[in-house]
Amino acid sequence: MLFTLSMMQLQHFTQAQTPSAAEVLKPVYATAATENRNVLLIFHASWCGGCKEMDASLADSSIKESIAKNYEIAHLTVYESDAKKNLENAGALKLLTDLGGNDKGLPYWFIMDAQGNKLADADHKPGENTGCPANETEVNYFIGILKKTSKLSPPELEKIRKRFRKNEQ
Which helix (H) or strand (E) holds 35? Predict the structure, then answer.
């Protein structure tokens, strides 16, 4: 009985340590407003290979600085297994649903303005999530969105294009 109670307290403590979606996004939007940037909001999960590939692409030294000058990046965790539900951000699935990205696969990303208004999403065609852009169609769509929502120069966009095209297998 004591062990069960201790495990329940530990689980509650662990869950309490994961910030809510609102707690994650509040400082991101504040910085975006101050720095005159948009937000690249990425919904992901610990098990998602495409999510890891997206993060690795954005963190690649060839494009990281260009992305950082133009976007605040925020991650919200959804769709975890029962054993890892404590990793999910409370309110993230509702936000994903409200924005129209639920049940479309992961990663699923949005470009948001500094006030939290949706400017674009990962659907390169209705219902077709680009996920981590890799093939020519997905990358072209992603580059088009970046062009519309940032001050990235043509050479920077070309570096981003080349980096994401490396994801195609």
Answer: helix 21-35
